[in-house]
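Morning run. Coffee first, then this:
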Amino acid sequence: MKELRERGIYALPDGREFVIHAVFRGGYILYTPVGWEFSGVHLYESDDSGRIRSNGRPTHWNIGDLTDTSRTARSRSRNGAAQKPFTG
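And here it is:
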């Protein structure tokens, strides 16, 4: 399984983008950018072999289908600060 960047923003072939979070048991959790920012529920997760699942059911995607956008999500925030423009 290819290694993904923590908080990296990756796109599925259909264009939807997700923030990646590695989990201790192996695999990844995929959040929408808004879900990541506001500690929402993840839409997808992968197992340690790279299969992407939704609600525990396999999808036709795997980790190898994700394309790195070269962007990184900010650390989570309690008040939505990561969604505000950076002015520093």
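The beta strands are 8-11, 17-22, 28-31, 44-46, 51-54, 57-62, 67-72. Good start to the day.
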